[in-house]
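Figure caption, in words: inputs first, then the predicted bound structure.
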Amino acid sequence: PHVVCEACIGCKRTDCVDVCPVDCFREGPNFLVIDPDECIDCAVCIPECPEAAIFAEEDVPEDQQEFIALNAELAREWPSITRRKPYPDDADQYHGVKGKLKFLKR
Ligand code: F3S
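Bound structure (FE3-S4 cluster present):
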């Protein structure tokens, strides 16, 4: 499956959601995840993300490997999102910031 990684935290642009043919995105307070049981690896979401937060599992950067399990875990807890929504008011503050895992809200 594909994996939403650190760059999404706080930015949550949701452009990815509109192009997903199988509605596999799940929404938390300030982060989205992909349900690995639903994703068909079509990859259309990758170029849609302005934060470049989405990777094929085999391409997840070495320092973000924990996001593979985190997507699976949170996909079981969070509701489906199938339509994009406006960017969060403070999204730009999180753009390009490193070490955002500490800002993840559950
Ligand atoms: Fe997140 Fe990028 Fe989607 S910031 S919500 S993975 S478009």
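The beta strands are 2-4, 25-27, 32-34, 54-56.
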